[in-house]
Design a protein that fits this description.
Low-confidence stretches: 4-20, 218-224
Number of helices: 4
Number of domains: 3
Structural class: alpha+beta
CATH topology of the largest domain: Laminin
Largest sheet: 2 strands, antiparallel
Helix content: 10-25%
Strand content: 15-25%
Strand order of the largest sheet: 1-2
CATH superfamily of the largest domain: Laminin
CATH class of the largest domain: Mainly Beta
Number of strands: 12
Mean pLDDT: 75
């Protein structure tokens, strides 16, 4: 009973300390128990600095605000010059995705949770890494595929019909890549051939059954 009382008193003391600290934070700031030791600021809005992994306690600028040269947390617009940094079809974000879409990979499948600050392509645009500009998908440069009978597909690069699976189930993710041209299938050697040249594809009955179940589950999952 005495141990519980001590823990309760400690909890109340900690809560009171946090509350008092929050009240002491200047406007546009918030109290954090574990904030970055290298917070973003107007001078370095992109945060491209070496910083330790250790966090610190104190008052930090709220999301959407940066610390200016006077030590005051101001909006990004008040920093001055941020809008001029961004090019056409870009916008300045205080917490943008760490894996922005590009012409080759418009919709990255895996991305770390951390966000970054800087200029990002606006909604409906992707980054053309060749020019560095933000463009719509239809304006992405055409990629010349190295193999015969292949064409570039901006979204189905990882999912194309083949001799072994003429009706693949594709995920919603969008990844560019070279696929066989219309009416052609990828054979076992990686060539693009007509369905007639696929030959007789023999598979184990158990494998066919498992593939059918897998497709059914994929379709159910994609429709959720």
């Amino acid at each position: 009973m005495q141990e519980k009382s001590v823990l309760f008193i400690c909890f109340i003391a900690l809560s009171t300390a946090i509350y008092i600290a929050q009240e002491d934070c200047p406007p546009n700031e918030e109290y954090l128990l574990c904030g970055s030791p290298c917070p973003f600021n107007c001078t370095n809005p992109d945060g491209q600095v070496q910083c330790s992994d250790d966090c610190i306690e104190g008052c930090f600028c709220k999301t959407g605000y940066l610390r200016n040269d006077n030590g005051t947390c101001v909006s990004i617009a008040e920093c001055g010059g941020q809008d001029d940094i961004c090019d056409a079809n870009e916008e300045f974000l205080s917490c943008g995705t760490a894996c922005p879409g590009t012409c080759k990979q418009p919709d990255p499948i895996v991305c770390e949770l951390a966000c970054s600050m800087g200029c990002f392509c606006k909604a409906g645009y992707v980054r053309d890494t060749a020019s560095g500009q933000c463009v719509t998908l239809d304006k992405c440069p055409t990629v010349k595929c190295p193999n015969e009978n292949e064409v570039w597909d901006v979204c189905n690069g990882l999912c194309e019909p083949s001799c072994a699976d003429q009706e693949p189930v594709c995920a919603f993710s969008c990844t560019g890549g070279c696929i066989c041209g219309p009416g052609l299938l990828r054979n076992a050697t990686g060539e693009c051939v007509t369905p007639e040249k696929c030959g007789n594809i023999t598979t184990n009955p158990l494998t066919e059954h498992l593939n059918a179940i897998s497709k059914f589950l994929d379709v159910k999952f994609l429709n959720i």
